[in-house]
Structure formats: C-alpha cells, structure tokens
Amino acid sequence: MTKTIFLILCWQLSLSGIVYAQTYDEGRAAYINGDYTTALNILTPLAESGNAEAQKMLGIMYDYGQGVEADPETALQWYIQSAEQGQTAVQYQVGAKYFKGETIPQDYNEAARWWQMAANGGQVDAQFNLGLMYFRGLGLDQNDDLATSMFQQAAAQGHANAQYSLGVMFAFGRGVDQDYETAREWFIQAANNGVSQAQYNLGIFYENGNGVARDIEQAKSWYQLAADQGLTEAVAKLEALDSTDPDQGMQDVINTAATDTNPAETEVTNSPATNYDYSEIATTGLKRESWLIDQSPDHYTIQIGSVLNEDDLVNYLKRHNIENESAYIQIVIDGVTRYNAFYEIYATYQDAQSAVNQLPNEIQRSNPWIRNIRILQGLLN
Q: Which helix (H) or strand (E) holds 191?
C-alpha cells in the first residue's frame, strides 16, 4: 500500500513540471489572443510560485491595465521579482522606470544599479546608458575610464550611438589615449549606421585635416549626409563652403591637429551622443538598426508596422508581448521620419509566410508583409 502511494506521488510530481510549462504557454496564448481574464487566472499562481516569465507578463498587464485595473506599483513589484531572477530585458526596463521617474520617484542611483545588472548580462542599451551616466556624472561619479569601457562594450555589439560616443572619446583622449585614426574609424561605423553627428564630425576631420589629408570634397559629402538628416550645423557648413573659394578655404581653416592637442572644440562635438538628450535616452530595450544590419542578407523578416510616433510602436510591441522577438528601425523618406517594426528572422520566404499565419489576429489585420534583409540593409545604408 505504501509503495503504491509512493508511486502515485512520484507520478504526480513528475507530471507537475510538464503541466507547469504547458500552463504558462496557455497563459501566454490567452494573453496574445486578448483573453486577459484567462491569462490573469493562469499566470498569477505561476508568478506567485516564482516563474520569471509569468512575473514579467503580470507586470505588463498591471502596467497597461489589461484584465486588471492599471496599477504601476504592483507592475513594478512583478517586474522586480522577474528582474531579480536574471532577466536582463526586465532589469533594463526597471532601470528605465527609475531613470525616467515613471509612476515612481526618479532615482538615478537605482537606475544605474539595475542597468549595471543588465549590462553585465550583455544588454546593449544598458551598457550605452551607463556610459553616458559615467561620462556626465549623473547618479554616478564622473569617470571617463568607465564611460569608455561601457561605450566599448556597446559599440562591439553594433550600438550606433555607442560607436559615435567612442569616436568622441578617442578624438579628445578621454579615458583612452588620443587617436584621431581610431576616432575616425568609430565615426565611420556610426555614420554608416545613420548617426548624423558622426557624419558631421567626419566632415570636420576632412575639412580640418584631423588625422587625414585635408579633402574639402570629402568633407562636403559627409556634411551632405548629415544635412539630409536635418542637422543644422551641417547645413551651415555646406553653405559656408559653397560660398568660399575651395583653395582659399583650405588656407583659412585651422589645422588643429598641428596646433592643439584636441580637434577644434567649437566644431567637433565633444560630448558623446549629443543628439541623445536625456529626455530621449534609449529606454525601450528593443533591438534596433545594428541588430538588423548584423543579420544574413539572404534571410527574411516580417514587417508588422510602420508609424510616425516611436512611443506608439514600442507600446504596440509590448502590448502584444512580442518585444523580445521584434526589432524596429527609424527611417527618413522625403523628410518624413517613420518607425518600422519587424518580427523574427527566417531562413526562407516560405518560412516567413508560414509564420505570418501564426501571428495574433490583431497583427494579421494590419497586413504584415515579408521583407528581404538585404533590401532593408540597403535602405539603412
């Protein structure tokens, strides 16, 4: 009799793990289908028993008032429980909430603490943002060495603004030995990823001969790229060069590489990611342009949205709980800035077509369409 009871108990325990996993999948499926009541009933006991993914989803539901009354404090508590289990994306989001003071008192120290956890786990936006905080001494002691280290980690993962910021550090010898050639290499990477300030700084390098032979035509080409993105300093530069005799202009510019230890501080931007104001600091944690550029050009993705407002797109992805599977890019066409979202990467067109049919109904109603990675990379370049 005892042996029989023991066997039944073992069977129940071994089965419980399978039911646990299936139940989470069912809860997530209910959430995606918009059945928030069912999702809440399934996910709550899982979250209470320590399931990190369920805790994250409950945080989202309380954050956006899905199936429950919106409760930012409860949402944050669920996020924190999930983040404490090592979920880097959630650690990043918790840090972002403290940084921006969303529904909680703004606390830069607490933001830095959570971003440090996420950065240790390889979260690229956390690495970049920590670099800015160290550079500016915001919530942390100002430290050029640590700022450079964080920029290097993010730049190595293709973060465009980190590449730009690292170029600035080398140009001015902050946290590293001054090296115009290395600065130029990082500016080029950032410029190719669409950072207008990097394009502008390359124009300055070629106009003034900072670490390269002076070349006014090359300078103009970089200024033009920055001007096409609306950078007013670049527009002014082009107008000034067009109104000046090129040979005379070459004599008039100051060869700062020969006369100073730094490039002309009145011209070369000497602050990492100047176009990254703290009110616009990266806080989505979503994959961006650099991730798309790293994909195989022969693969495919699904475009699931194109909007004018970045926050609308980010909230759309979070509402459907697909931010981990998605990425988005910023493009400018005919002077209009749009944000395009993409879902997953597929080896073949047929694989992508099959995946379209598995998307939530609301997303399918937006007529998602399949895009070739090579074409998208060309668009970014």
A: helix 180-192
What domains appear along the chain, each with residue ranges and CATH number?
23-124 (1.25.40.10), 141-279 (1.25.40.10), 286-380 (3.30.70.1070)
Q: What would the two tokens of residue 249 be?
A: 């202009």
Cα 381 to Cα 378: distance, rounded to the nearest angstrom: 5
What is the separation of C-alpha 320 from the centre of its chain, rounded to a whole number of angstroms?
19
For residue 316, the model assigns a pLDDT of 84
Structure tokens at 211: 């670490």
Provide the β-strand partners of residue 288: none
**Look-up of token digits 């509402």:** 319
The per-residue pLDDT for 183 is 94
* Residue recorded with tokens 């409860």: 74
Cite the beta strand spans of the chain per DSSP E. Answer: 300-307, 326-333, 336-346, 369-372
Q: What is the overall mean pLDDT for the chain?
A: 81
More confident residue, 174 or 2: 174
CA–CA separation, 80 and 52 (whole Å): 10
Q: What is the predicted pLDDT for the residue at 54?
A: 93
- Tokens representing residue 353 in the block: 């077509």
Long-range Cβ contact pairs of 106-115 (< 8 A, separation 24 or more)? 107/139, 108/133, 108/138, 108/139, 108/140, 109/139, 109/140, 111/139, 112/139, 112/140, 114/83, 115/91
Closest CA to 198 of 256, 272, 280: 272
Q: Using pLDDT thresholds of 50, 70 and 90, give the confidence band for residue 211.
A: confident
Sign of CA dihedral 309, 314, 317, 320: negative
State how far the Cα of 135 lies from the Cα of 150, in Å rounded to an integer.
10
Query: What pLDDT is attached to residue 177?
Result: 94
What gap in Å lies between CA 280 and CA 278, rounded to an integer? 5
Query: 151, 142 in Cβ contact below 8 A?
Result: no
Sign for the pseudo-dihedral over CA of 353, 285, 22, 29: negative
Handedness of CA 110, 111, 117, 119 (dihedral sign): negative
Rounded (5°) CA angle 310-316-321: 130
